[in-house]
Amino acid sequence: MQSWTPNTPLQNGQYIIKKVIGGGGFGETYLAEDTEENRLVVIKTLNREQREKPDFAEIQKRFRKEALDLSKCYHPHIVQVYDNFPEDGLWAIVMEHIDGDDLAAYLENYTAENGYLSETEALRYIDQIGQALECVHERKLLHRDVKPNNILLRRESKEAVLIDFGLAREFQPGKIRSMTASKTEGYAPIEQYERRGDFGYYTDVYALAATLYSLLTNRVPIPANYRAEEDVKLSPPQKFNQQISDKVNAAILKGMELEPVNRPQTVREFREMLGLVVKPVVNIPTPPLVNYRPIPVQQKAPQNIPTPQPIKQEVQLKSAAGMDYRKLQNYLKAGEWKEADEETTRLMLTVGKREKEGWLRVEDIDNFPCEDLHTIDKLWVKYSDGKFGFSVQKRIYQSLGETGNYDEKIWQTFGEKVGWKRRKSWLGSWLYYKNITFDKKAPEGHLPFWGCGVFCAGLPSSSWWRFVRVGVSLLSRRDL
C-alpha cells in the first residue's frame, strides 16, 4: 500500500486522483474526479504512519466505522460523505468537495484589510457550526478538533461547513475512557491532554468557544495545559477587541473554563449563552374557564389529499416562458422515460435561465411559472397513467406529514417511498442517476427524477443540502 499519485485510477476508473490536498496525524487527503457523476470529490485514507502500526487493521476498522457514523449526520453544515470502498487493502472515504477557503485563511485575509471580524458575522459561523455539532452529538460522537482550519466557507453562500472528522470518536456521556492524545494547541481542552480523560459534549464546547475567541481577537488562545500547569489566567477577549459585547465575552470565558464541570455542558447551552437560541415563551397564565352553553357545530370529515388521476383529454402545451413542450410530449408518449427525464431537466433549467449552472435555486422554484409547471406535470401524469409527476410526488410527500419546512425523517422516508433511497444500507443510500429505474414498473412518484430527486442525490453539485431545500420548495408549491 502506497500513497496515490496524480492520474491514479481507483474503483475501475470511477475516481481519478488529481492531487494531494492535505495530510495530518492520521490521514491523507486527495482531490479526485468522480468520472461517473462528473464532479470533484475529496478522498481520504489513513496515512503511511498509521499503516505501519502493528494494530493497523483495528485502526482501519475504526476509521471506516467513524465514516459510517458521519454519513448518518445529514446536515447543511457538515461535510457530506458520498461513498466508501477498499482499494488494495486500503479503505477510502469519498466526501463532498467544498469550493471555498477555510475560516482561518478567510480571517487572515479579512483582518488584513478590515480589522477585526464583526461580532455578528463571527456568531453566524459559530451558530452554524454549533448546530452541526449538536447533530454530531445526537449520534454519540465527538468531533474533538473544532478550529478555524477545520471549518470551510462555501464560496458562493458563505455558509460554514465542519470538516475533518479524523479525531472523531464515539463516547458515552459521563464515562471516562481512553482516546488518542492528538489535539490542536489552543483549541483543545485540558481533558484532551490526558490519556484517559473525562470526555463529553463540553469537550467540543471548549473548542467552539476557543474558535469564537480566535475569530474575534485574531489570536490563538493560550493552551489549556499551560494555563493549568503555570496557573495562567486566560485573557478576556475584550482585552484585545473592545467591540466584543459583555454577553459574548462572558460566554467565551465560560465555555473555555479549565474544569469541564464549570463549562456549559452542551453546545445548545453555550449557544443559549450567546443569545443564539430563541427560547419559547412559557408560563403564560391561563384565563379562568367560563361556562357557556355549547353550540353544536357540524364536524367536517377529514379531507384526504387527492390522488392525481390519469388525464384522458389532450394536454394543452401552455408556456408563459415561450417553451416548446412537444419533444417532452413525444418522449412520454413513446414511453422513453429516461429521455423524457433529461428533457424535463433541460426545460426547467432553460425556464429558470440556469443552463450554465446546471441546477436551480429555491428562488427559481418559487418563481417558476405555474403554467409551465402545470404543463410538465400534466404530461407526466397523463402518459404514466397517474403514476409519475410532480403532483404525484407532492401527494406522497404531504401524506407523510410535511409542514413546508425540511424534516430529515420525513425527507428520508419520502426518498424510500419513491425509490430514490435504499433502506438499511450504507449512507441510507440515496441513488445516483445511473441507478434510477426508467421504467413504468418503478415505484409510484419515482419520476421525474430531476423534479426533486436530483436535489437530494448530490447531482450535479456537491451541495447536497441546497438541493434538498429546492426539493422541499418544489413539493410545497400550492399550485401543484
The gyration radius over C-alpha positions equals 26 Å
Give the strand line-up of the largest sheet. 1-2-3-4-6-5
- Alpha-carbon distance between the two ends: 54 Å
- The computed structural class is alpha+beta
Textual characterization of the structure:
With 480 residues, the chain is of the alpha+beta class. The chain contains 16 helices and 14 strands. The chain has helices at 48-51, 56-71, 103-114, 119-138, 201-217, 224-230, 246-255, 267-273, 326-333, 337-351, 362-366, 370-383, 390-399, 408-417, 449-456, 464-475; strands spanning 9-10, 15-23, 27-34, 39-46, 81-87, 90-96, 141-142, 151-153, 160-162, 169-170, 177-178, 196-197, 421-425, 428-430. The strands form five sheets. A six-stranded antiparallel beta sheet has the order 1-2-3-4-6-5.
Can you give me a brief rundown of this structure?
The chain is 36% helix and 13% strand. The protein is an alpha+beta fold and 480 residues long.
